[in-house]
Each structure stands twice: as structure tokens, then as C-alpha cells.
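Dear colleague,

As promised, here are the two records you asked about, laid out in our usual form so they can be pasted straight into your sheet.

NAME FIELD: protein one
SEQUENCE, THEN STRUCTURE:
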Amino acid sequence: ENAENMYFFSELALTLNEPEERVAPTDSRLRPDQRLMESGRWDEANVEKQRLEEKQRAVRRRREAEAVEALEEGKDYEGYSPLWFERKVDAFTGELLCVYKGGYWEAKDKQDWSACPDIF
């Protein structure tokens, strides 16, 4: 019903981005630029998107500088490591996979998001 006004998305597709309580602070549904856009505040959403992108660039530059510094000092540098997933090679296909390594549901149950970075 009313699909032509909803970009012909299914009911499921329309609800996938609905906010949910008690999720990690890194959950993409919490993106402030997206929330502004969805409420029709386009100019504010664009300013916020620019702020978030610059924040991401700054983190990338910091990681790159840390990697160079570690290299110059002869130290190992791990760089970014996902919290909830790890990369593994599928033994049968040789394909690189991201496999859940645990921890998210436990953190959610405890509402302990202290391991999450401040990305917004």
C-alpha cells in the first residue's frame, strides 16, 4: 500500500533504519547526519556529514602517523582492529571472510560499550 510514495521499498526495507534502544554507540542507525536528513533538516545534515567525514580523515591521518612512527622506531604497529569480527580465509574457497568473534551480545546485555570508539 502506498508503495509509489515509498520508493517501492518493502515494509522491511523501510524499517531497517528505525532507531533501536540499547545498541552500541557505533550503530549506524545513530548517525547524527542521517537522523537530521530523515527529519528533513537537509542543511544541518550536510554540515554534520562534513564534520563526521573530517573526523574520520583525522583518525586516518593519526593512524598513518602512528604507523610511520612505529616503523621509524622499529616497532610493530597493529593499526585498526574490528571489535566484533576478525578476518579469516575460508579453507575451502580461499575467500577472505569477516567472522563474528564474539563480545557484542555480552556488551549489549551489560550495556558496557566502553570498548567502542567515539565515531560520531
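NAME FIELD: protein two
SEQUENCE, THEN STRUCTURE:
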Amino acid sequence: MKIIDRIKKGQEEGRPLFSFEYFSPKTAQGMVNLQDRIERMCYLGPEFIDITWGAGGSRPAATLEVVSNAQKVYGVETCMHLICTNNPLDKIDKALN
């Protein structure tokens, strides 16, 4: 289900909605820690989680790995958050493609 549809459904049901935002890890240990944290926090029932694409010098591939694992392993809807500040247009275009 699309995130906007989840939000609309929650509003129609009159229930509180929330999500969590995570930054992609820069190291292998960071990836392990993040996966563990996502697993624990998904028990709280967020509508979706937001993974920031390439934040703070993290690799874009790490974002894709986190998103893929979150959807496949934990069944949580995901949104990739692209940071455009201080990024050249060609890098943003590449990420969007």
C-alpha cells in the first residue's frame, strides 16, 4: 500500500500516525546495529520508516540495502529520503534515476 494511502486510512480511522527516520550506516557494524534497531522499533507499528539516502557521506547502496531488508524481512513500508542540500544537480539526477 502506498504511504499516502496508509496515512489516509489512519486518518479515516482516527488513530495516531507516526514513522521513524534512520540514516544509512557508514560501516558494516553500523549496518548490523541499524538492522537490530529497525527490528525492535517495528514492533511499535510505524506507518512507514524513512531512510535518508546518502546522509553524512554514507553510501547510497547502503540505503538500498536497508530499504530492501526492511521491506523483505520486517514487512514495513519504506520511504527513501533524498537530501538535496549541498549536492550538485547531476548527483541528485543520478540518485533519482
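A couple of things worth noting about protein two: The longest helix spans residues 28-42. The chain has a mean pLDDT of 88.

Best,
R.
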